[in-house]
Each structure stands twice: as C-alpha cells, then as structure tokens.
Model the fold of this input.
Amino acid sequence: MNNDNLFAALRAAFPADLDSAAVETEEGAVYSWRDLDRATAMLANLLDSLDLQPGARIAVQVEKSVEAMLLYLATLRAGYVFLPLNTAYQSAEIDYFLGDAEPAVVVCSARNFGWVSKLAFKAGTRHVFTLDEDRSGSLLERAAHHSDRHEIARKSPDDLAAILYTSGTTGRSKGAMLSHGNLLSNARVLKDYWGWKPGDVLIHALPIFHVHGLFVALHGALINGSKILWLSKFDPKLVIGKMREATVFMGVPTLYVRMLAEPSLTREAAKNMRLFIAGSAPLLLETFNEWRERTGQAILERYGMSETIMLTSNPYDPKQGERRGGTVGFPLPEVELRVTGDDGAELPRGEIGDIQVRGPNVFKGYWRMEEKTKEEFTADGWFKTGDVGKIDESGYVHIVGRSKDLIISGGYNVYPAEIEGYINELPGVAESALVGVPHPDFGEVGVAVVIPKPGATLDGEAIISQLKGRLANFKIPKRCFIVGELPRNTMGKVQKNLLREQHRGLFA
Ligand code: MLC
Ligand code: AMP
Done:
C-alpha cells in the first residue's frame, strides 16, 4: 500500500550511502543521512509516546538549528501537523497563535519557557518542551530515551502536514493548512523544473519558519538527496565563501542586495554555483542586472505564497526560454494561473488584473475559518492570490502590485491593519495609517502616519518605542509622523497612495 506521507518520499531519496554527509553547519558539525534517519525516528517516537490525537498541532518557536529542522521532519514522520512560529513574534502574537491553533505540543527556547508555557497551558497545551541552538533543552533529553527506529505514519495526500500563519487583512492572522499532497507535489515539480541533479549542494541561509526556507529550500535538497550547508543566520561574507563548495542558493532579494555590497562577490567566487533563486518579494531589475554583471549568472526569480507554495518560475533550462528580470516566469507544471478583471472574467494577455490560481499545490483552507476560506476562492475553485499582474505575450507572468493591503519588508509580510490596530490602542491616538515605502536594503518598509486625539500631544519616536517588544521587530514602523489629518477620498477612505507618494523618498 502506498504511503503519501511527505517524509516517506524524502526518506526514499536519501542516498544509498547513509554515512555520507547530509548537513554541515558553519561550526563544522556534520550530520550523516543515517543521523537524520535516527534522530527523526527518536523524535517521532517521543511524539508518539505522548498519546496525541490525530491531527495534533506541534507549535515550534525556536532559533534556527539542525535539530529544529529534525523536529519538523519528525513531526511529518509521526504524522502530526507542524506549526512554525517566527522567533521575532512577541507575547501578544504568540498568545493569539496558540489560542487559535490549540497545539498539543509547544517547543520553545529555554529563555522563553516562562511566558510561552504560561500561554500554552492557557491554550490547553499539555506538553511544553525546550530546544536551543546548542542542542540543549528538554526535547532532546526526552527523545534520547526513545528508539532510533520508527515506522513512518501512513498518510493520504489530503492529510494536513503543516499550518502556516499568514497575517490577515483585517488584522487577524489566518492559518493556511497545507497537506502532505500539497507539499510533495510542489517539491517534485521543483526538483524537475530547476534541474536538481546528483552532486548538487545547497547553501541554506533562510529562516525555517516560512515557506521559502522550510519548504522550498529544505524539501528541494532533501528530495534530491543533496547535501545542505546549513547556516544559522544569513551572513553575506560567509555565503559568498561557501559558494566554492556549493551549487544552489535561495534567498529573498535583500540577501542578494547585501551580497552585492561585498567586494568578495566575483565571477570567480560564484563559478561553482549552478543556480541562484530569488523570491518572496519583488527582485528589482537593477539587482538582477548587477548580479549578472558581477557573477556572470542570471538569478532565477520565482513567485509563491504560504497558501500555494510555489506558483511560477523563470525557466532553468534555456530551451524553455531566458530568465527575464522583472518577471516571475511561467506557471509551474500542474499549476494553472489566470488574470481576471473586476467582473471575474479572464483577461486577454497583456492586460492587468487579479491573479488567480488552481492546482495540487493550493492549500486546504484557513484553519477554523470556513467563511474566510470561501471568500478567497471563486465559485469554480480558483484561489484569489491578492496579487495584481499580467501575463505578457511570451507567457511570462509579471506582478505589478497587490490588491491586498500588504507591505513586504525583507521578505517578511507586514499587514498594515494589524499594526494600525496596535497604534490606535496607544493613549492619545485618534487614528493611524501604515504605508510601505521603498527601502534600499529591505525593498520596502513601513512608515506610520498618526493623528492625535484632540488636545493630545504625541511623539513619533515614543510611539515606535511603545510598539517595540509588543510586536515582532520587523513589523515596527521605521518612521512615525504625527499629522493633523489624513488624505481621504469622497467616500472618506484614507488615500494611502497619496501617503506613499509623499514619503517615497524617505530612504532613497
Ligand atoms: C530585520 N529587521 C527588519 C527585517 N529583518 N526590518 C524590516 N524588515 C525585515 N525583514 C530589522 C530588525 O527589526 C532590527 O531592527 C534590525 O533589522 C536588525 O535585526 P536582525 O534580526 O539582526 O536583522 P537581520 O538578521 O539582518 O535580518 C534581515 C534578513 C531577515 C533579511 C536576513 O529579515 C530575513 O531572514 N528575511 C528573510 C525572510 C524570509 O525568509 N521570507 C520568506 C517568507 S515565505 P532594530 O530596530 O530592532 O534594531 C514567502 C513565500 C515565498 O514569502 O514566495 O517565498
Ligand atoms: P507569504 O504570505 O509570506 O507567503 O507571502 C506571499 C506574497 O509574497 C505573495 O502573495 C506575493 O505578494 C509576494 N511574493 C512572493 N514572491 C514574489 C516575487 N517573486 N515577486 C513579487 N512578489 C512576490
């Protein structure tokens, strides 16, 4: 009988020589494929010993480490649902996620155990473990008592593998439910489309709590049985140095911008590399061109989202076409993509409209938000991405904007409604608006414009300080202006485009 557990497919791709290196860290620690197999078995046995319900959520907020990655794989192996949380999230954010997802198990770093366990127990969680970058913590201590053999849990393609929270337009985050089938179909398509081959080595420098680092990069290497050079944090000099031993790199545009600022980035340094992939945010044409001049290689830009994993990609194989900067390439095999007008009808090529998608990669819906899920799909089953774009005459997809009010900063999403909600609760604030403006490092950053209540005196810097510690650091506005009124249209709606225009030169 077939097992559609994603882990079964990843395990089947391990090379025959289980003692060869699977993961190497920047500190020189080496994990063999056998280590990966045994450690995930021990962790899976630990989870199995906890007597969890089918579909139990395992919520994890820990610093990036190989062990954190093994915990993800073990969760798949045991058949539970992985729920990764950005380490930047603060207590109000974590409180919401745990309350909404009601995880059976929470894993956090030892220094956060006090407040995280309190929130977890409030949410009904029965087991809270700790895990730190130096392999300390109760999770591994407990797992050490379990067998290193484990039969992979049987799963069908529709069974849930992970829930990824993506902030909501109304301020409430939504948990995108991804199945084993979603993740596996996308991993297989990308292995083929990006020409993964024997001997490939991946530089993994992204965080592992979002689609890019956790799924696209990690599954890409594992399903090809490829070694991973594992970096706990992005460091441009280190990545450039590692290119001599590697062939594939994936990053958000900010990582490319930062590497371009290093004189050590040369054709020679990059000559062993076969493929540079960018995504999660728009890659500026000037970055694409500058990278080609410096390294002789064209970055392959692709487009995706938490709800759909990867949707489009520039071609890898020149026979399929050139990699065009400023575009996100073609819909991937098995992915259908259309651009529609206001009336919902499909638009001809070249016309700008809403991007909708369909395919085995599209998620199962938002966790416990049936109505919201329905709203985001058309009657004939297409998912509305909230991105605005066009398909050009040659079939390349261009993203030209977003209908959703979203700022993408250094590859992280910032939803203005959420931040405005926090600002509006501060004493003396009548109203606020957050807009995204261009930034040379992060691509785009949030700038807040705030109106005081009558008689109140506010200070922009003080507002920023009050938000720090309450919200993840990347969501904190980089600047905050106090004004008398906000520009509005005749319907009374704040004209954010005017605010964006007014402040667009701030970081030029
Ligand atoms: C850090 N800071 C940011 C920021 N990251 N500000 C805005 N946007 C960001 N993304 C701020 C911090 O608040 C802090 O400010 C200061 O920068 C230093 O923090 P740091 O943590 O030391 O920063 P650094 O390590 O340099 O991180 C920058 C980064 C990181 C670019 C390496 O943001 C990153 O890893 N981004 C990748 C995100 C990612 O993987 N996205 C994929 C999503 S999946 P202060 O004031 O507190 O000092 C997806 C789907 C798809 O979108 O298609 O892939
Ligand atoms: P997330 O919700 O974090 O998964 O972010 C998904 C969003 O990131 C998409 O809806 C797009 O708006 C954006 N995105 C991802 N890749 C690209 C890209 N290559 N170019 C422009 N925007 C992108």
